[in-house]
Amino acid sequence: MPQALAPTLHFFQGTHGLGVQVLLRVGTSGLLFDFGTPYEPTRGPFNAFVRPRAGREAEDLLRVGWAPPIAGLYAGNPVLPDGALHDLENLAVFTSHHDLDHSALVPHLSPGVPLYATPETIRSYRAMGWRHDAYQPVEAGGSFRVGDMAFTVVEVDHGPLGAAGFLARVGEATIAYTGDWRWHGAHPERIDAFIEVCRDADVDVLLFEANRAGGHYDPPPGEDLSQEGWCERVDATLDRADGWLVYGFDPRDHAALRAAQDRFEAAGRRLVVHADTAELLARYDALAAEVATPAALQPRPVLSLHDPGVRDAVLRDPSRFVIEARMEVFPELQHLFEEVEHGGARRGARPFLHAGGPFGSFEASWATFQGWLERLSLDRVPLSVNGHAPEADVHRLVRAVAPRLAIPVHSPDPARAVPEGVARFLPQRGDVIRLEPGGVITHL
User: What sign results for the dihedral spanned by CA atoms 280, 285, 290, 291?
Assistant: First the structure.
């Protein structure tokens, strides 16, 4: 491969932590993947209390090193730090899915920069009000080009609809990226298919998500559910609930939401959500036709708690409903419980199907969350099918793909992510490597 055409990989984030920002480039053309900010819930420069300045978010994120310093990437042309890249004439972005550690910078993208993602992911951005002039939807199996680089989008299973990685052919090199993935969810066949695509392509370099390598984000015992375990736990909770039942969920995970609603309605209960969630789901519905979402994956209609008729019905008989619960609305739930019980003695714990955040003690809000569970007498029933593969499955995937070089990203412990006997590169933040034929790299 002529040296001038050799692809390079620039690692901005995701090397020893969460939040992927990697640039694949050839000459003056480059694809940035993903486009999120680091996930540092207890020690990062920004959190729920300290936020970037309104209207100057990209500038502030660049200053603390949370955004890739690339000229022409951001709307408004914020001031770039020293060492920024200024020589990319053909720049595009790929996002694997709509989690903030992969997509939080999308609202700050320059209008002229194409953003490639699956239609479902773009639908999610638009439903959130994230406007962009150059969305480029690509179906799973579809392709796009950035300069001399050719990309094929490959569907994976992670949770949110539309999660995907890609296969890239750049000169003589073949590169694959998993995005976030799991093998224990509702669609393990998607991971099998990803492996098959990689093996057919004889992948030189595999970049793979390894969030749970080392066990940092492993759930506690009894909370690492398979899809079958999820179904059993929902049904068992419905069987024992004779009054209140509350449910915390991610409204972007339509497949899980629809599956839960089906089970609720079979048990004679309707889902009641708060006004902001009802509005968000309505926006998703309005955009559904544009991406041909199968009816079986679209959420069923929901009731809004802020409809006076619905609220009155809940107050008369909570046992006919499932009420949305999340930290932001716990005070409202407290008021609702008191309205029904009129200050009387509580009749034991109220089951809480917990499928949303916070997810564990590694989050700053966990102690507050636990305090509210006690205050509201909520019996937390863990209901999350983790979106990330455990270390054993990570090793299994890498061995099955059999790349010439394995590069773990999006991992707090990348050294644990690569099985023995597989050639590896463990990038550091700021590293740049050139890919030579046969999976050989040169550290620049």
Answer: positive
Q: What is the pLDDT of residue 202?
A: 96
Burial of 7 (0-12, 13-18, 19+ CB in 10 A): buried
* CA-closest candidate to residue 207, choices 440, 424, 421, 26: 424
Mean confidence (pLDDT) of the chain: 91
Residue 215 carries which DSSP code?
Answer: G
User: Rounded to whole angstroms, how far apart are CA atoms 35 and 108?
Assistant: 10
CATH of 3-217+388-443, one of 3.40.50.700, 3.40.50.300, 2.40.30.10, 3.60.15.10: 3.60.15.10
Residue 193 confidence (pLDDT) above 50: yes
Per-residue pLDDT, 245? 96
User: Which tokens is 306 given?
Assistant: 């802020």
Q: How far apart, in whole angstroms, are the C-alpha atoms of residue 52 and residue 19?
A: 17
247 to 238, 327, 382: CA distances (angstroms): 11, 11, 10
Residue 119 and residue 290 in contact, taking contact as beta carbons nearer than 8 Å: yes
pLDDT at 2: 42
406 has which bridge partners? 206, 424
Q: What is the pLDDT of residues 259-304, one digit of tens each?
A: 999 999 999 999 999 999 999 999 888 887 777 777 766 778 899 9
Both tokens assigned to 89: 């004439």
Residues 167 and 194: their CA atoms lie apart, in Å, by 9
d(CA 258, CA 248): 14
Q: Which amino acid is at 254?
A: H
**CA distances to 12, 57, 61, 104, 241 from 51, in Å:** 21, 8, 10, 13, 40
Mean pLDDT value across residues 49-77: 93
Contact 21, 36 (CB under 8 A): yes
Strands 432-435 and 303-304, how do they pair? unpaired
- Closest residue by Cα to residue 180 from 34, 9, 398, 39: 34
Task: Kindly tell me the sign of the dihedral angle through the C-alpha atoms of 205, 207, 210, 213.
Answer: positive
Helix (H, G, I), strand (E, B) or coil at 304: strand
Structural domain boundaries of the chain?
3-217+388-443, 227-382
With residue 115 as reference, give the H or E element that holds it: strand 115-117
Q: Tell me whether strands 350-354 and 378-382 are parallel, antiparallel or unpaired.
A: parallel
> Do residues 204 and 177 touch, judged by C-beta distance below 8 A?
no
Nearest to 58 by CA among 41, 27, 35: 35
Q: Kindly report the CATH class assigned to 227-382.
A: alpha beta
Query: How confident is the model at residue 343, as a pLDDT?
Result: 52
Tens digits of residue pLDDT in 323-377: 999 999 999 999 999 888 765 555 678 999 999 888 888 788 899 999 999 999 9
